[in-house]
């Protein structure tokens, strides 16, 4: 009787990460408008970095110059993900955003296969086609209209996430680096870029902060403390206490939770064809997740270990990065 109970206790925090990630797109819509996206990101990172820095301080002092530079380069990519996801989230529905971003799950194996010049199994290709068909139905209301700007931005974010995962696996300078320290460097780099750009693209962060009411501050804290810090530390704990495949399976429920929050709290309305599209996305991405494991078992040990580090560290990284929208 103890084994199932112990497994549940290990799984529950990871499942909670998927739930809070699923709520992140709704949270973004509650705290940001098109003109305040960059300022909001400065505020969010301003809350995260000091806390994360307390835990990472010792490891940061041990980082070499090459590790700082490698983390900073990846931070620029991470910043692009945040911008695309956040701007996308305020221009489309929370449901669409959560489902479209899940395409990273099929994009990444496709990109890895292209780089390695290896063939993917046919079931994976079928799953990818199913997911893409689902996106077409979901964003086009059955093909009756073109995707919204927000849908395209989120699709772009899924593509950049794929670049982030692949780059993380191949940046030699950080392969043996402390995960916590490198994550701090990435976030700090992205935050610095946002802080420099903020005065030129909208109101200053402190102006936005002063305009926030209690509800908006609550959502901002939700993004910073739960969607970022809580998610990161749970992943670090989970990879040491359970299998990566189990963590991946639980985190893969994120788009389902995004749809739940979008429909129940954001008031998203999906027509019959859009509902079918959403279901196809969920089925296609999960099918792709399972079938894509076959080619990974055939890769060289060193390459497989590197890819495993990337998926652990980034899919927050979803990756979904460990620090998602």
Briefly say what this structure is.
The protein has 325 residues and is mainly α.
Shape estimate: globular
Structural class: mainly alpha
Low-confidence stretches: 295-322
Span of the ends, CA to CA: 38 Å
Radius of gyration from CA coordinates? 19 Å
Beta-strand segment tally: 0
Give average pLDDT, whole number: 83
The tally of helices reads 15
Approximately what portion of the residues adopt beta-strand conformation? Answer: under 5%
Helical residue percent band:
over 70%
Q: How many distinct domains?
A: 1
Order of helices and strands: HHHHHHHHHHHHHHH
Q: What summary fits the major beta sheet? A: none
List keywords for this structure.
DMT family transporter; 15 helices; single chain; 325 residues; mainly alpha
Would you write up a description of this structure?
The chain is built from 15 helices and no strands. It has 325 residues and is mostly helical. The chain is globular. Mean pLDDT is 83; it is low at 295-322.
What layout of secondary structure does this protein have?
Elements: H1 2-31, H2 37-62, H3 65-89, H4 94-100, H5 104-116, H6 122-140, H7 149-170, H8 179-201, H9 205-211, H10 214-241, H11 244-251, H12 254-264, H13 272-291, H14 293-296, H15 301-314
């Amino acid at each position: 009787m103890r084994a199932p109970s112990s497994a549940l206790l290990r799984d529950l925090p990871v499942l909670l990460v998927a739930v809070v990630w699923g709520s992140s797109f709704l949270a973004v819509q509650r705290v940001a408008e098109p003109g305040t996206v960059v300022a909001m990101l400065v505020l969010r990172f301003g809350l995260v970095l000091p806390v994360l820095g307390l835990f990472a301080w010792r490891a940061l002092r041990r980082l070499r110059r090459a590790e700082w530079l490698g983390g900073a380069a990846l931070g620029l990519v991470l910043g692009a993900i945040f911008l695309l996801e956040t701007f996308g989230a305020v221009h489309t529905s929370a449901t669409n955003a959560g489902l479209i971003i899940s395409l990273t799950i099929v994009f990444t194996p496709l990109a890895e296969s292209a780089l390695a010049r290896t063939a993917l199994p046919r079931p994976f290709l079928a799953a990818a086609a199913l997911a893409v068909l689902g996106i077409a139905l979901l964003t086009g209301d059955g093909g009756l209209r073109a995707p919204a700007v927000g849908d395209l931005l989120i699709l772009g974010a899924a593509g950049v996430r794929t670049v982030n995962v692949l780059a993380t696996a191949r940046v030699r300078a950080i392969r043996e680096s402390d995960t916590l320290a490198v994550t701090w460097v990435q976030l700090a780099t992205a935050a610095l870029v946002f802080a420099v750009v903020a005065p030129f693209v909208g109101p200053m962060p402190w102006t936005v902060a002063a305009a926030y009411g209690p509800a908006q501050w609550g959502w901002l804290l939700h993004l910073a403390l739960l969607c970022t810090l809580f998610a990161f530390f749970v992943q670090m704990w989970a990879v040491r206490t359970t299998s990566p495949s189990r963590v991946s399976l639980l985190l893969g429920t994120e788009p389902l939770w995004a749809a739940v929050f979008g429909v129940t709290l954001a008031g998203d309305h999906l027509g019959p064809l859009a509902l079918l599209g959403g279901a196809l996305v969920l089925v296609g991405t999960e099918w792709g997740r399972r079938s894509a494991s076959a080619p990974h078992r055939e890769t060289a040990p060193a390459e497989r270990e590197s890819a495993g580090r990337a998926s652990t560290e980034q899919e927050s990284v979803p990756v979904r990065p460990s620090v998602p929208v």
